From TrEMBL:
Keywords, sorted A to Z: Glycosidase, Hydrolase
Annotated catalytic residues: 202, 276
PROSITE patterns per record: GLYCOSYL_HYDROL_F35
Catalysed reactions, semicolon-separated: Hydrolysis of terminal non-reducing beta-D-galactose residues in beta-D-galactosides
One GO molecular-function entry: beta-galactosidase activity
UniProt family annotation: Belongs to the glycosyl hydrolase 35 family.
Family matches, as Pfam families: BetaGal_ABD_1, BetaGal_gal-bd, Glyco_hydro_35
Gene designation per UniProt: LOC100913406
Record GO biological process: carbohydrate metabolic process
Domain spans labelled Glycoside hydrolase 35 catalytic: 54-365
Broad enzyme group: hydrolase
Beta-galactosidase 1-like first all-beta domain location: 424-525
Name the UniProt record assigns to this protein: Beta-galactosidase
Organism: Sarcophilus harrisii
EC number(s) recorded for this UniProt protein: 3.2.1.23
Higher taxonomy: Eukaryota, Metazoa, Chordata, Craniata, Vertebrata
Amino acid sequence: MWSSSSRRRDQRRKLSLLLLAIIVFLLVRRFNWSDLFPIWRWHRHLGLQAEGPNFLLEGSHFQIFGGSIHYFRVPREYWRDRLLKLKACGLNTLTTYIPWNLHEPERGKFNFSGNLDVEAFVQMAADIGLWVILRPGPYICSEWDLGGLPSWLLQDSSMELRTTYAGFLKAVDRYFNHLIPRVVPLQYKQGGPIIAVQVENEYGSYDKDSNYMPYIKKALMSRGINELLMTSDNKDGLSGGYLEGVLATVNLKHVDSMIFNYLHSFQENKPTMVTEYWTGWFDTWGGPHNIVDADDVVVTVSSIIQMGASLNLYMFHGGTNFGFMNGAQHFGEYLADVTSYDYDAILTEAGDYTPKFFKLREFFSTIIGNPLPQLPASTPKASYHAVRPSHYLSLWDALEHVGKPLEYEKPVNMENLEVNQGNGQSYGYILYETSIYEGGTLFSKDHIRDRAQVFVNRIYVGSMDYEIEGLPIPEYQGHRKLSILVENRGRVNYGQKLNEQRKGLIGDIYLNESPLRNFKIYSLEMKENFFQSLSSIKWNQVPEEATGPAFFRGTLHIDSIVLDTFLKLEGWFKGVVFINGQNLGRFWNIGPQETLYLPGPWLRPGNNEIIVFEEQKSGMIIQSTDTPYLGRTHYIEL
């Protein structure tokens, strides 16, 4: 028989164990287990499964509510803000492309730092509580120059992009050798947020080589990708893009039961996924600003969800084609995409809320059932004082300071110039100069890509592009200098013309019936070192009537707090704007884009240098405004 003291000891022991269990329970609930990947990785075996009509994530029913944000189109300082807003809208998954041409700008030279730190972006999504679908290409489309493929691939005159052509695959393999090991540890089964990886992108719309997609699939898997693999195609490309053992998904603008019936006809008993539901559309220079009604977006999203399908909003937040990175379309007519990638998306180009956001947040809150995260505050904007450029440097005066010209007998295209350690020139402008001794007609048939200004003795005589084949050259006596300034307005990013995207002068250009020879060629890529070479030159005061091509320099002074703003170049014609060395992108008075987004993190208190390269006609001032001009009619402030 136990003594009373033994009973008391037993009761105290039981009470201590109960208190310990309570403490452990509270600690488990409060502890951030995401910091202990090795422990909770033990319970991740299955990943995202697509065997049956519904997705399963670790054996439990899972419906993907995704949204696209591209880290390379958003300043790194704003990544968290945009991701938090995606989460606050009720979405559970981030999708992002990876642009090869930014990560390997020169053959064998890789960059995964700063704004290109894709690992940090994916990890940030995980910290916020988002799953990730990765779309590594190598081709991404995305209204991005050459669909994300590096331009140096086109140095090979026999290049066949997106095929098993040996030169292309060798480059892909080297790129994947550097990229894939970075993302493998971020996969679901290794404790990361990546639940699926897309194989290439919309290959069914290209479909030139039946062996290509299996090769890319094997290239991903052999380097350690072991999560669910997907393809993504529109209706016309579904059959051509289908790959055995890979989940086929669709891209669309409107719900059409025929699309899903067609998908299920060759992919039975699989989950239905809309990888790209187009919430808006991209804009091209000279066209309208494309808008999709907010109510129509909610109706379409609701229809997809009610079918039991998963979806991804393309785009949730578009961002900006900073620099020269915009793509182009060419279906009978060449059309360059604008700098803004606003896309009429769920968030604006500058990350502001729209009616679409609030209507979708309300919709998702009703089907999720749990309270959604608190809304992050809107990023404040500012209207700073207008800037009147004070200094001026004509392109002709700048030439002698930007390096010796290259000399060739015949014209050489941009990609094959002997610059950048043999990688050619990727973006910007290129100037060809030669001597002529007569007038007549300067003739080109599809040999100028994309737009050229023509000068005789550096006096402007006209412009040429895809549509203008001949330009009259005035008659003068004796030797004269012919200058042809060609702009790469953006390489085509979609369709069958990818292999034809070499820029500058492509082959011979004729004066009357004689091909021109003996060229001096200036590479005007306008990278950081280009402007460093101009900084020591004495610039002139801006003349009363200043014309281009020329550089105009001014100062934006900010007293203390720096905020986002937009630059409006009313009265200017066409060119590029640089702020503190950052290339904001192109402007053109034909619209629809009328302002350039200037992120606050790129500004500083005090003086900020603005340089405008104007091709033809300069304006008097550069306005700063807190309101973009893109065609949107509603902005929501919190």
